[in-house]
Amino acid sequence: MIQFKKIALVLLLFLGISINAQNTYKRWPDIISKNDAAWFGSAEAKKIAENVLLYQRNIGGWPKNIQMQDELTEKQQNDLIAIKKTSAETTTDNGATCQEMLFMSRMYAQIKDERYKESFIKGLNYLLEAQYPNGGWPQFYPLKKGYYTHITYNDDSMVNIMNVIKAVADETEYYSVKPSKDIVEKCQKAFDKGIDCILKTQYKQNGVLTAWCAQHDEVTLAPANARAFELVSLSGYESAKIVLLLMSIEKPSREIVTAVKSAVEWFEKTKITNLEEKRILNDAGKIVDKKMIPATNAKPIWARFMDLETNEPFFCDRDGIKKKSIDQIGAERRNGYSWYSEAPQEVLKRFPDWAVKNGTKGGAAEKKIVNYITVAQDGSGDFAKIQDAVYATPAFPYQKVTIFIKNGIYNEKVRIPEWNNNVILKGESKENTIITFDDNFSKIALGRNSTFYTYTLLVEGDDCTVSNLTVKNSSGERGQAIALSVVGNRVKITNCNLLGNQDTLYLSGKETKQYFKDCYIEGTTDFIFGGATALFENCIIHSIKSSYITAASTPEGTFFGFVFKNCKLTANPEAKDVYLGRPWRVYAKTVFINCEMGKQIKPEGWENWSKPEAEKKAFYAEYNCTGEGFQPSKRVSWSHQLSKKEVGEYSIENILKDKNVNWYSN
C-alpha cells in the first residue's frame, strides 16, 4: 500500500508538471510563434483551433486584434457562425489572416484534420483575391471606405502577405499545407506584381530613390495620409521590412539591386545616433511616459515619420499638426505609439554580405573576391556608379582593392565604409573624373549635426588612397557643405581637386593620420577643419572670399594638428582679408612651414574665435614662409615663429608615423 501511494504521488506530480507546461502565453501572436511543434498536437491547441475556424469568414480572411485562445460562450459561438457569410472586418492589418494561416499550418503538421488544410487554402485565396491589379494590397478586403483602401505597408501589412505567398510560390517547407500547382503559379504571379508595385512606390527626392511611405494611393501610387497623426511621410520602420523582403530574393533584377542600395544609402543618411529613448514605467510595468534624451554615439535609431523632402523627423497628435519633437505632443499619443525604430539596423547588418553576393554587373548572384574594379558611365566598366563598385569590394581585404574611375561627372554621394579598408579610389584624370553632389546643412536638416551628413565623398575605411580626381560639393554658398570627409586612419589623398565653399574638407579622428599631397583645395569659411593629424605637402590652398582657411579641433595632448609644408596660399581677387585659422576647439594646432602666402593673408594671421582661453591653449605657428602675406612681425602675440631646431620636429616621419611606419610613401 505504501509503495502504491508513492507511485500515485509521482503520477500526480508528473500530471501537475504537465498541466503547468501547457501554453502560458497571453498574446495570440505569441501562442502561434513561441510554442514548439509538439504543442500544436495538444488538446489545448485543438480547442483553440475550433475558435480560429469560427472566426474565419467564408471569404477566407479573419478580423484583427482577437485573442483567439479566449474561451467563447455559446452565444459568442452562435454570433460568429451568423456573421461568417458577411466578411465583416476581414483584414491583414496587425498581422491578421497571415498569422491565423500560420497557426492552421502548424496545426495541420501535427493533426491531419482536413478542416485545417481547407482553412489555410481559403486564407491564401483571400490574399490573392484582395490584391489590386497594380500589385498592391489594401488594409481591408472587401474594401472599407477611407484610408483603408490605400496600398498599405503600415505595420508590415503588405510585406506579411508577400512573405506568405513567396513561401508558397517557392514551394518551401515553411507551411505544412501544399497547395495545388495552379495556386502556386498564382502566388508567383502575385508576388512578382507585388515587387513591381514596391519598386514603383519607392519615393524619389530630387530624382534620387530613398524609401517608402506607410501608405500609397491605390491609383496614383503617391504617398497618402492615414489617421490624423499618420501624415504623409517616409517611414523608417516600414521601409526596413520592405528592404529585407527585397534582399530575400534570389538572383535579384538590376532594379531590385538599385532599390536596395538606394534605401541603404537613405538609412545611413537618416540614422540618429545622438538620442536615446527613456521609458518611464509604473509599478505594474506599464509605460507612463517616453522621453528622448541626448546621448553620445548612441545605438542608431530611425524616426517612424520623416518629411518627404528634408527627411526631418516629425510627430503628430490627433490634431494632425506636425511637431518637431516627441515632447511637443500629448501623453496619449506620445506613449501609445512607436515613434522611433531600430528595424533598419538589421538591414545595415545584412547588407555587406548581400552586396558582395549581388554586387556584380546585372545583379548576378556571384560571390568572388575582386582586386580591380572599373567604373565607367558608358557601360564599358564593371559598374556605372562608384558607390556600386564600393559595395562590390570585399570587407576587410588582405590586400589593396583598386577602383579605377574613368572620366565623367559622377553625380552621386559616395561612402567608403569602415569595413572597406585598403581601397584605392583612382581617377583617370584629376580634371575630368569628377564626383559631385549638392547636400548642405539646410538641405540635410537633421539638427545641429547636419554638417557631417553633407559630404560628397566619405572615407571611413583605414589605409585608403584617393588620387587623380575631383571631389566637389556643388551646393554653392548655402552654408556648411562638405566635399570630402575623411574619418579613416592612414588615408592618403594625392593629386586631387577638393572643391566647395564653407567646410570643404573635414578631417576627423582623435588618433588618425592623414596625408594630402599635390592637391588643390578651395573654399570660403573654415574650409579645412577637424581634429585629425594631417600633413599637407605641395598643395594649393585657395580662398574664394575673405574668411578663415582652417578651423582645427585638435584633441588635447596631440602633438601635431594640421601641418602645411611647401604649400601655396592663393585667393580670388575679392578675397582680401583671409585668416590662416581660428580654433574650432581651444587646443587647435596649425603650422605653416616653407609656404608661399599671397597678399590676401591678414597681417595678424590668426583669430581666437571669441575664445580667450584659446590664446593660451591653442598652438599656431609658422616657419620660413614667403610672399606678401607672410608678415611675422605683425602676427598676433600669442602665435609662434618656429626656430630651426623646433621645425626639425616636423618631419614626415614624426607627423605621420603609425603602426605601419611607411604607409605614407606607398
Topology:
Elements: H1 2-20, H2 28-34, H3 43-55, H4 74-82, H5 98-110, H6 114-130, E1 151-152, H7 157-169, H8 181-201, E2 204-205, E3 208-209, E4 215-216, H9 238-247, H10 254-270, E5 275-281, E6 287-294, E7 302-303, E8 315-316, E9 322-323, H11 331-335, E10 340-341, H12 344-358, E11 372-375, H13 386-392, E12 401-405, E13 408-411, E14 414-416, E15 423-427, E16 433-437, H14 441-444, E17 457-459, E18 465-467, E19 470-473, E20 484-486, E21 491-494, E22 497-499, E23 505-507, E24 513-517, E25 520-523, E26 528-530, E27 533-537, E28 540-543, E29 548-552, E30 562-565, E31 568-571, E32 579-581, E33 589-593, E34 596-597, H15 614-617, E35 619-623, E36 640-641, H16 644-647, H17 652-656
Parallel strand pairs: 11-12, 12-15, 13-16, 14-17, 15-18, 16-19, 17-20, 18-21, 19-22, 20-23, 21-24, 22-25, 23-26, 24-27, 25-28, 26-29, 27-30, 28-31, 29-32, 30-33, 31-34, 33-35, 35-36
Antiparallel strand pairs: 1-4, 2-3, 5-6, 7-10, 8-9
Give me a quick take on this structure:
By secondary structure, the chain is of the alpha/beta class.
Structure description:
The chain is an alpha/beta fold and 666 residues long. It has a domain at 390-665: Pectate Lyase C-like (3 Solenoid). Helices cover 27% and strands 20% of the residues. It has 17 helices and 36 strands. α13 (386-392) links the parallel β11 (372-375) and β12 (401-405). α9 (238-247) packs parallel to α12. The longest helix is centred in the first third of the chain and has 21 residues, at 181-201. The chain is elongated, with a radius of gyration of 31 Å. 44% of the residues are buried. The model is unreliable at 1-21 and 360-369 (pLDDT under 50).
